[in-house]
Design a protein that fits this description.
Length: about 90
């Protein structure tokens, strides 16, 4: 299942994986961040909460001097290759 949501809060209750019987499913996400100057950043990750924390703590080169960042939108993909393909249309 691919899920897409606009987001109005910074910390999400987003799963970092799912147990599908005997298989563990690791979801990946394409996300869009927005800062107070209306600049946007598009990325992909397997852990939205941790990645947003890294952006806002200055541990990501491009976003460290341009924050604070809010999660504006995210979309879930079943695996990393599909998330990379999905982010290509946004850039």
């Amino acid at each position: 299942m691919v899920e897409s949501r606009p987001v109005g809060i910074n910390r999400l209750a987003v799963p970092t994986g799912r147990d599908l019987g005997s298989q563990f499913f690791m979801a990946y996400y394409v996300y869009i961040l927005k800062n107070p100057d209306d600049r946007f950043y598009i990325g992909q990750t397997s852990d939205l909460n941790k990645r947003l924390e890294r952006h806002n703590s200055g541990r990501v080169f491009w976003t460290k001097a341009r924050g604070p960042w809010e999660l504006a939108h995210w979309k879930e993909f079943p695996d990393r290759p599909k998330s990379l393909a999905g982010s290509g249309g946004l850039r």
